[in-house]
Specification:
- There is one protein chain.
- This protein has about 200 residues and is mainly alpha-helical.
- Helix content is about 45%, strand content about 5%.
- It has seven helices and four strands, in the order H-E-H-E-H-E-E-H-H-H-H.
- The strands form two sheets. Strands 1-2 form a two-stranded parallel sheet. Strands 3-4 form a two-stranded parallel ribbon.
- Strand 1, helix 2 and strand 2 form a beta-alpha-beta unit.
- The longest helix is centred in the last third of the chain and has 22 residues.
- It is elongated and about 70 Å long.
- The two termini are about 40 Å apart.
Length: about 200
């Protein structure tokens, strides 16, 4: 409940004062399947939470969701701007992986000063590793296993083209998969930095 949330957050801010900057969540940002009918954070509740807790930044529910399970988020920029009009640029957007790319450039104008993302990195990195493994499968699995998977309809006959080659150590090393995952994630991170207009993100620090 908002009242209990305010009180617990206020006590935490007092305990941490002078040590850390506290970011407080006005409402829970959950998965769409769990909170499909939840109302968004109102400007009134956001202002009350900010004023009564003493937090440095607030996390309002603006329609995004953790884990990005929905087809598309219902991010409400108008609501974000209404909250900004009351407390200034103090909002953090959790669940930013659920946003369509087209929403990203306008977040700053809506008063969002920090975004939290992770799910999309897991997804893109995992997909990149899956593609890499499929490309290297003839060098990872022995022929008899590939033949069995072809017979089951899991793989196509092209997976038998390399014949009876033995698994190759280069294709089995964990660092190869790590490098593929990292390349996909770094590319997305750079995309975010460009979308958010971090003009100096290439600085050598």
């Amino acid at each position: 409940p908002l009242e209990l949330n305010i009180e617990m957050t206020r006590r935490f801010v007092e305990r941490m004062r002078g040590r850390v900057l506290v970011e407080g969540a006005v409402a829970e940002i959950a998965q769409a399947v769990e909170h499909a009918d939840d109302p968004l954070t109102t400007p009134e509740d956001a202002e009350r939470f900010y004023n009564e807790t003493g937090v440095f930044l607030i996390v309002p529910d603006l329609g995004t969701e953790h884990r990005a399970t929905a087809v598309a988020a219902r991010y409400d920029g108008e609501r974000a701007r209404a909250i900004t009009a009351r407390i200034g640029r103090k909002s953090v957007l959790h669940g930013s992986s659920s946003l369509p790319d087209g929403d990203l450039p306008r977040l700053a104008a809506d008063g969002i000063v920090k975004v939290n993302v992770w799910t999309i990195f897991e997804r893109l990195g995992g997909q990149a590793v899956a593609r890499h493994i499929l490309d290297e499968l003839a060098h990872i699995l022995p022929l008899e296993e590939r033949r069995a998977l072809v017979e089951q309809g899991v793989l196509g006959s092209r997976m038998l083209d390399d014949g009876d080659s033995s698994p190759q150590l280069d294709s089995l090393r964990e660092e190869r998969r790590r490098d593929v995952w990292q390349a996909a994630v770094v590319a997305r991170m750079k995309f975010y930095l460009e979308q958010y207009n971090y003009a100096n993100w290439r600085a050598p620090y």
